[in-house]
C-alpha cells in the first residue's frame, strides 16, 4: 500500500504570539515550530497501515526551509521518503495551498492520502477535502479507524453527540484523520540516524508550474481578541492567590 | 444579491445549529439590504420545509432525492453546486457541523471559491461583508474579506449566533428534484450508531474540575484527582488528555465529548481552544488556572490564577481544606 501523509509545520502550541507590525499576520521571528499535532496522528495512522499491509509512507510537506526539520522528524518516526514543496505558505488560502500539494503528488499514484483534521495555526480544516477534490478522489473526514480491504477501505467516522458511522469507499481515496486515533510514537535513535539518508525531493511552485491565482478570501486584519468577560485575576504568590480564590468561590460566587 | 442558508437535518430532525444559521442569514441579509432564503436537503423533508415556511424568508428550497437520504459528500456537492449555480446567491451560510466540514471545502472548490470556515461573528460596512474567525486555537482573531464576486461561502461556529432570534413570517416552498448520477456517489455509508452508554454523566455534575495539556504527563493526573476530591467535584478533561489515554474518553468535555453546565467549572492547564469552550461555556462560574495570561480560557473565566499549576494546585488544595 502506497500512502502519502500530508503534514504541516506550525508554531509550537505554547508559543507566545505577537501581532506583526503589518497587522496582517503574527511576528514569526522568535517562534519555535513543530509538526501540526493532528497531522502527527495522520502520520501514525499511515505508519501503522504500512506495518500491517507493507508498502511505503511518503511524507508531503509544504513550507519554507525550516519545514525540513519537521520532515526529518517524520522520516525519523518511520516514513520512507518525503516531498518538500519549498514555499513560504504564510497566509495562502487553503485552495492555493492544496493546488501546490496536488501538483506535488502528480505522478505518485498513491493508494491512500492521509491528512490531519485541521491545522493548529490557520485552522480552516479544509486542505484535505480540497486536495481530494482537486485529485478527483473520494474522501471521508474525522476518521477513527481504518480497515484496508482488497481494493477498498472501510473507515469509522465520528459524527456529533457520540454517534459514529462506518463508510466504505474504493481506493485510491483521501482520509482526514481524527486526533487520538492511536498513541503517537517517538522517533528512536536508530530512526533519527536512518532519516539522514532518506530521500527528500524538493519542488517549488515554479518547478511544479503552479501559477498564483487571485485569492478569493483576504486576511484583512489580525488582532488579539477582546475579553468579553471581566475576569478577576490572581497572580503572584501561589498560596496567597489560592487563598484569595477560595475566598471568592465561597463568599462571592458561592459555589463551594 | 441574496443570502442563502443551507440547513442541516438527519432523519427528519433539525441539527440544532441550523436555526443559528437561519438567524445569521436573516440578520446579514437585512444588513446587506437584501432577502434571505433557506435550503434543506434530504428525502421525505416535506414537514421540515413546511416548518421553514413560517419564517421570514423569501423562499424555502426543498431539495429532495433518494441519494440525499443518507449523507454523502459526493451527492450533497452535486445537488448544492447545481442549486447555487442556478440561484446565484451573493452569500451562502452553513452551520459549522461535522457534516458541513466534510463537504463544504469540496463544494467551494467545485465553485472555484474558498469557504471561510468556523466564523464567530461578522460586520457589514459600505455593503461589504467581513467575517471574523479565530487563528492559533483561539489565541488570535482575524477579519476576513472576500475577493471577487460571489457566491461567498462561510460556515458559522456553533453558538456564534442565537437561534431564538429567528424572525417569523411566511415563505414560499420551492420543491427541487436534482439530478444526481448514482455513479458520482463513491462512498457507501452504513447507518449511524452509538457506542455503549456512558458510565459518567458529566452533564449532571454540579462542580467539575477539568484538566488539560498543562498537566504534562499521566503521572501528574492524581494531583488533579486530589483537587476534585477535596472540592467534591467530578473530574473531566480536554480532548488531548483523553486522546493520550490518561483519562477515559467518557470524561472528555468539548465539541466531540460531553457538553456540561455545572455551577462551577475549574479548568486546570487548559488553554481553551474553541473545541473545548463550546462544551463548557454554559457553566455558571468558570475558574481558570494557567501559566499563560493570554490563554483564551481567561476570556471566558470569572476567576483566574496565572501561575504554574504544579505550585498553584497544591496551594489550592490546602486552602480549600482550611476553609472547611
How would you portray this structure in words?
The complex is a heterodimer of chains A (256) and B (324). By secondary structure, chain A is an alpha/beta fold. Chain A has two domains: 2-208, Rossmann fold (3-Layer(aba) Sandwich); 225-256, no CATH class. Chain A is 29% helix and 29% strand. In chain A, a hairpin with a 3-residue loop joins strand 7 (139-148) and strand 8 (152-158). Chain A is globular, with a radius of gyration of 21 Å. Chain B folds into two domains: 2-184, HUPs (Rossmann fold), CATH 3.40.50.620; 202-323, Rossmann fold. Chain B is 28% helix and 28% strand. The model of chain B has no long low-confidence stretch (mean pLDDT 94). Classes of the chains: A alpha/beta (256), B alpha/beta (324). Strand 12 (217-223) of chain A pairs antiparallel with strand 9 of chain B.
Q: What's the helix-strand series of chain B?
A: EEEHEHEHEHEEEEEEEEHEHEHEHEH
Q: What is the level-2 CATH architecture name of the largest domain in chain B?
A: 3-Layer(aba) Sandwich
Question: What helical percentage do the residues of chain A reach?
Answer: 25-40%
Strand content of chain A: 25-35%
Order of helices and strands of chain A: EEEHEHEHEHEEEEHEHEEH
Q: Looking at the structure, what is the overall shape of chain A?
A: globular
Largest sheet of chain B: 9 strands, mixed
The CATH topology assignment of the largest domain in chain B is: Rossmann fold
CA-atom Rg of chain B in angstroms: 22 Å
The CATH superfamily of the largest domain in chain B is known as HUPs
Whole-Å distance between the termini of chain A? 57 Å
**Average of the residue pLDDT scores of chain B:** 94
The overall number of domains of chain A is: 2
Estimated helix fraction of chain B:
25-40%
Secondary structural class of chain A: alpha/beta
Amino acid at each position: 500500500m502506497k500512502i502519502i501523509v500530508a503534514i504541516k509545520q506550525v508554531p509550537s502550541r505554547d508559543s507566545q504570539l505577537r501581532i506583526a507590525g503589518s497587522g496582517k499576520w503574527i511576528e514569526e521571528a522568535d517562534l519555535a515550530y513543530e509538526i501540526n499535532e493532528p497531522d502527527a496522528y495522520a502520520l501514525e495512522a499511515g505508519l501503522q497501515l504500512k506495518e500491517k499491509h507493507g508498502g511505503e509512507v511518503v511524507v508531503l510537506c509544504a513550507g519554507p526551509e525550516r519545514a525540513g526539520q519537521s520532515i526529518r522528524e517524520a522520516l525519523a518516526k518511520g516514513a520512507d521518503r518525503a516531498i518538500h514543496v519549498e514555499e513560504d505558505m504564510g497566509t495562502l488560502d487553503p485552495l492555493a495551498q492544496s493546488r501546490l500539494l496536488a501538483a506535488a503528488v502528480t505522478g505518485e499514484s498513491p493508494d491512500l492520502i492521509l491528512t490531519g483534521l485541521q491545522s493548529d495555526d490557520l485552522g480552516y480544516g479544509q486542505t484535505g477535502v480540497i486536495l481530494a477534490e482537486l485529485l478527483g478522489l473520494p474522501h471521508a473526514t474525522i476518521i477513527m479507524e481504518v480497515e484496508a480491504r482488497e481494493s477498498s477501505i472501510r473507515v469509522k467516522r465520528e459524527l456529533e453527540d457520540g454517534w459514529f458511522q462506518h463508510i466504505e469507499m474504493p481506493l485510491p481515496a483521501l482520509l482526514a484523520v481524527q486526533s487520538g486515533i492511536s498513541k503517537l510514537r517517538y522517533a528512536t535513535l536508530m530512526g533519527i540516524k536512518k532519516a539522514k539518508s532518506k530521500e527528500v525531493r524538493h519542488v517549488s511552485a515554479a518547478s511544479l508550474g503552479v501559477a498564483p491565482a487571485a485569492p478569493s478570501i483576504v486576511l484583512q486584519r489580525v488582532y488579539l481578541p477582546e475579553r468579553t468577560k471581566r475576569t478577576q485575576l490572581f497572580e503572584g504568590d501561589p498560596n496567597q492567590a489560592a487563598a484569595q480564590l477560595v475566598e471568592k468561590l465561597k463568599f462571592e460566587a458561592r459555589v463551594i | 444579491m441574496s443570502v442563502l442558508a443551507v440547513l442541516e437535518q438527519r432523519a427528519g430532525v433539525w441539527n440544532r445549529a441550523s436555526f443559528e444559521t437561519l438567524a445569521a442569514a436573516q440578520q446579514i441579509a437585512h444588513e446587506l439590504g437584501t432577502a434571505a432564503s433557506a435550503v434543506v436537503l434530504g428525502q421525505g423533508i416535506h414537514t421540515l420545509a413546511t416548518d421553514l415556511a413560517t419564517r421570514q424568508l423569501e423562499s424555502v428550497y426543498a431539495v429532495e432525492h433518494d441519494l440525499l437520504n443518507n449523507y454523502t459528500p459526493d451527492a450533497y456537492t452535486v445537488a448544492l453546486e447545481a442549486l447555487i449555480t442556478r440561484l446565484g446567491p451573493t452569500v451562502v451560510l452553513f452551520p459549522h457541523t461535522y457534516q458541513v466540514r466534510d463537504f463544504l471545502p469540496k463544494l467551494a472548490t467545485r465553485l472555484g471559491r474558498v469557504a471561510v470556515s468556523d466564523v464567530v461573528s461578522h460586520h457589514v460596512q459600505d455593503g461589504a461583508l467581513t467575517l471574523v474567525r479565530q487563528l492559533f486555537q483561539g489565541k488570535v482573531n482575524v477579519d476576513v474579506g472576500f475577493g471577487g464576486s460571489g457566491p461567498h461561502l462561510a460556515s458559522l461556529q456553533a453558538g456564534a449566533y442565537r437561534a431564538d432570534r429567528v424572525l417569523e413570517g411566511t415563505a414560499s416552498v420551492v420543491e427541487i428534484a436534482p439530478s444526481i448520477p448514482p455513479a458520482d456517489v463513491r462512498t457507501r455509508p452504513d447507518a449511524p450508531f452509538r457506542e455503549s452508554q456512558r458510565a459518567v454523566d458529566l452533564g449532571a455534575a454540579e462542580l467539575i474540575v477539568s484538566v488539560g495539556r498543562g498537566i504534562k504527563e499521566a503521572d501528574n493526573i492524581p494531583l488533579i484527582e486530589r483537587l476534585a476530591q477535596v472540592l467534591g467535584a467530578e473530574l473531566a478533561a480536554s480532548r488531548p488528555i483523553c486522546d493520550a489515554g490518561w483519562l477515559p474518553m467518557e470524561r472528555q468535555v468539548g465539541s466531540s465529548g460531553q457538553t456540561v453546565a455545572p455551577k462551577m467549572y475549574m479548568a486546570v492547564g487548559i488553554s481553551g481552544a474553541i473545541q473545548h469552550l463550546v462544551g463548557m461555556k454554559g457553566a455558571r462560574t468558570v475558574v481558570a488556572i494557567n501559566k499563560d495570561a493570554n490563554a483564551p480560557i481567561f476570556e471566558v473565566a470569572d476567576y483566574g490564577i496565572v501561575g504554574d499549576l504544579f505550585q498553584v494546585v497544591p496551594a489550592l488544595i490546602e486552602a480549600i481544606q482550611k476553609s472547611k
